[in-house]
Amino acid sequence: MPGRRFVIGVPYFWLILFFLLPFLILLYISFVDMGNDIHPFKSLWDAQTGELKLKYANYSSLFRSGEDGELFETMYVEAYLRSLWYALCTAVLCLLMGYPFAYFLARSAPSVRPALLMMVMLPFWTSFLLRVYAWKGILADQGVLNQGLMFLGLSAEPIQLLYTDVSMLVGMSYVYLPFMVLPLYANLVKLDVRLLEAARDLGASPWTVFWLITVPLSRAGIIAGFMLVFIPCVGEFVIPSLLGGPENLMIGRVVWDEMFISNNWPRATALAVLMIAVIVIPLAIYYYYFNGAAAEPENES
Amino acid sequence: MKTFLEKHFGKLWMGLGYLFLYLPLIFMIVFSFNGTRQDAVFTGFSLRWYEALAQDTKIVNGFWLSLQVAAISGLVSATLGMFCAFVLVRYRRFPGRTIFSGMVNAPLVMPEVVIGLSLLLMMVGAQKFLGWPQRGMLTIIFGHTLLGMAYATVVIQSRLLEVNRSIEEAAMDLGALPHQVFFLITLPNIYQSLLAAFLLAFTLSFDDVVIAEFLSGPGVNTLPQVIFGYARRGINPTIYAAATLLITTVTVAIIGYSIWVARQARQRRREIAAAARAGLKALRRGASPEAMLAGSGGVIGQ
Questions:
Q1: Whole-model pTM?
Q2: Domain residue extents for chain B
Q3: Cβ of A25 and B22 within 8 Å?
């Protein structure tokens, strides 16, 4: 059937051209030697001898600086670990803020729920960049927050908030909070209230009900929200550029610097390939858990 | 079974949550009207930053560029997303389906830095061997479309799964050609999701700075790129003015859209009720239940 071939062929062609091919080029450059200013990388095949020259050093040098350097003590490993650490902290913060928020949102009166939900979505539709930028003005040494603290007499002099861990985590959890709230809400709104009532009738305290029934039943939502926050946070580029200082360098920025400042294309691509690996591993865990949760017969109502 | 504490704790927590979400927006709106460059003290109402905004050619040019890029990549994303959704929902078996669905979904989890870098490398290569495309508007559109179509596919796919296929089959049984079925039955059923997909892809493109930073050429700067450049240099209330205009536009658009959706839902309920009344009347006149359902024009059946 020609129609079917057309419908499959058009997006297939597009994806091969703009997704698969660029990725293969990325992978290719990560295995070749660095070139000069005009040709930033050398060919994988030696033109004279026809010899294949795979250069694993692009990868190994990420883990060990120089010949006799300590293993795993390079700025790249540090940047990866820092990215993972910030992503983890952000996901935990979002969960702590977002879970009660989603819970009460799901328990609010059905008549106001669409409006409340829309209010969560609305900041998401306005520019992400502008919202991050606003935090720069709020958290600055002479910013609103410090002025407010000094006015209230809580602090004698401005506290350094901008370009620290505080501004990084505030900015990241601010941006990604809706990504936690929405899947949790979608899960909690389906929760069968009769189960909670039954537990209460049988003498469980509200806390017991919450920990033994609500939380386990919303596990799929917790995992989904956690991943939706964690994964984009690892590769975050804009927030560390605006709200972070030199000590808050994350891996996205390192890739950029290697590419455009050091002009070391093979190393930049090797870093990018490793970045994908760092993202794929938690994702595999997510699918493992997600499919496990889907297999359980938890929606019997 | 709400306890006293739960009731009030809940309201307090949600209030704080919304305050957190809206604090930066309120902050930018207030300080866009500030009289001085100062950032912490409101020194008097003024419109000087709006004037500065209108005279800033970099921002104005960036805005028009972003608008064009977002419109084009939004349209292409929605179209390609529709193709992808059709393939994923309707064609369960064909060679390379796993790779296809992997490639469709990958941009959703791929860091933007990696997308930008890999596309940049390809564009550089293509320019070297083919002399085309020059880095600029077109390359940014390519990059944004890759991201936009992944999101568009998710939106359209979820709608397409809900479409009742028996209506399409009925149309084909009655002799409609495949393209007639598509344009007369399927498209009207999914056009709302197409619109949603377009808006999502448009917003993603209008908002993106990372991919644009990788793919834009010299002198070609989208609005987010201009803002990003200003933002790294320090406080500039002109950006607050731009933000205020954007927030106003988005708020008006979203409220308008939800009113439109609510009105459509109400109209649909009215139609269903009218159809049910007509069916009941026919039933009273002695028609069979099957004829009654047919008389409702298929509205109830959906």
A1: 0.86
A2: 30-235, 245-302
A3: no
What is the C-alpha to C-alpha distance for residues A255 and A275, in angstroms, rounded to an integer? 9
pLDDT of residue B302 exceeding 70, the answer is no
Put simply, the answer to whether A126 touches B247 (Cβ < 8 Å) is yes
Substitution target from B117, B214, B258 for chain A, most A beta carbons within 10 A: B117
CB-CB contact of A167 with A139 (8 Å): yes
What does the pLDDT average to over B49-70? Answer: 92
pLDDT digits (tens, 9 = 90+) for A196-224: 889 989 988 888 888 998 999 998 899 88
| Confidence at residue B76, expressed as pLDDT on a 0 to 100 scale | 97
Nearest to B83 among A7, A232, A238 (CB): A7
Residue with tokens 């992978």: A27
Cis peptide bond upstream of A266, omega within 30: no
> Do B20 and A177 make contact, defined as CB atoms within 8 angstroms?
yes
Q: What angle do CA A32, A35, A37 make, to 5 degrees?
A: 145
Digit-coded pLDDT (tens) for B217-273: 888 899 999 999 998 887 788 999 999 999 999 889 888 888 888 888 888 889 888
Alpha-carbon gap, residue A151 to A107, rounded angstroms: 38
Identify which of A163-167, A286-290, B72-76, B156-160 has the greatest average pLDDT. B72-76
Q: Is B178 exposed, middle or buried (0-12, 13-18, 19+ CB in 10 A)?
A: middle
Token reading at B250:
């988005």
In sequence order, which ranges of chain B are alpha helices (DSSP H)?
4-32, 48-55, 57-90, 97-109, 112-130, 137-162, 165-173, 178-181, 187-207, 210-215, 223-233, 237-284, 289-295
Is residue A135 helix, strand or coil? helix
- The DSSP 8-state label assigned to residue B182 in this structure reads I
Which pLDDT belongs to residue A245? 86
CATH class of this structure's domain B30-235? mainly alpha
Q: Which helix (H) or strand (E) holds A59?
A: helix A57-63
CATH architecture, domain A68-295:
Orthogonal Bundle (1.10)
Structure tokens at A172: 């990241």
- The residues spanned by each domain of chain A are 68-295
Choose among A211, A230, A150: nearest CA to B111: A230
Tokens of B284: 């009273």
CB B227 within 8 A of CB A129: yes
Range B4-11 contact pairs with CB under 8 angstroms and sequence separation of 24 or more: B6/A206, B10/A100, B10/A103, B10/A104, B10/A107, B10/A108, B11/A104
Separation of alpha carbons B92 and B106, rounded Å: 19
Q: Which residues from chain B sit within 8 angstroms of residue A238, using beta carbons?
A: 209-210, 228
In this structure, are residues B67 and B250 in contact, taking their beta carbons and an 8 Å threshold? no
**Separation between Cα atoms, residue B67 and residue B141, nearest integer Å:** 11
Structure tokens at A258: 């290697």
Q: Is B21's CB within 8 Å of A105's CB?
A: no
